[in-house]
User: Fold this.
Amino acid sequence: MDLRSCLQVMFILVAAIAPHAIMARHLHIHKLSSSIFPQHLVGSGKGHNIEGIHNVRAFLQRYGYLSTNVETKGNVFDDNLEFAIKSYQKFFNLNVSGILDAETLELMSQPRCGVPDVFINETGGDGNGDRDHPIGLHYSFFNDLKPKWSASKYNLKYTFLGSFPEQYKNTVIQAMISWSFNSVFAFSEGSTDNTDVRISFEVGDHGDGSPFKDKNGALAHAFAPEDGRLHFNAQHAWADGAYPDKFDVGSVALHELGHILGLGHSDIRDAVMWPSMPPNLKKELSSDDVSGISALYDGVEED
Ligand SMILES: [Zn+2]
Ligand SMILES: [Zn+2]
Assistant:
């Protein structure tokens, strides 16, 4: 094991034991990494009228914490926004204050998946009902309806579309193999007119109602079963493995394939289904990811 791998393993171990200690120390060293949310928002709370707060409202709406009926314009920090920030803080196991503290803004600023964390559905519930777990933290599904593939589709056919980079195809296939070792699924190559999973690199508005705005936009997104579309944002810098300022295709593929199979986001930081993905990090399926897929397809719930 070389030094870099060794340090990564150490980081993952320490992060699993003390995620908040790591986050807190990180914040002392670095300023907010984002251009999306300006530094002056740190510390703002209900009743404040502060330039840039509409961007926070739009962010929380995009990821399911605020109803789409709420007007995102204006810079008044109102009750709705406070409630949404508390929901976000609760989801990510932060201090639930309703105040935009540095830790909350830092997490909002991290590169992440474009799929919402919370889905309001027609039953009035959300996908997080499944997270009411004795220990408190775990995987989720898209919503209370738990969309999943029918048993006749457990052998999924996949196709790379358009200009999917040749050098990353095997990386994505390795991610499929990881899921197949840990679920009821098998994957085999399909053809354009006979496929279940369609994987592509996309830019800007690519026709599915969720445009990739720019390199500050979502890293990737995928759709719930049995849709099968999996899109990487081509505007980000990608790599096969952990490299500075680049995102690991394999880790993001594992995450998006989780959505393809029916998983929502997890609030376990080292799970593949955790919504944020920093550069220079490689992740593998965690026990939480495997528990999630087992709960969905084998009906095996954790104790
Ligand atoms: Zn996601
Ligand atoms: Zn898309």
The first helix runs from residue 3 to 17. The first strand starts at residue 155 and ends at 160. Residues 9-34, 121-135 have pLDDT under 50 and may be disordered.
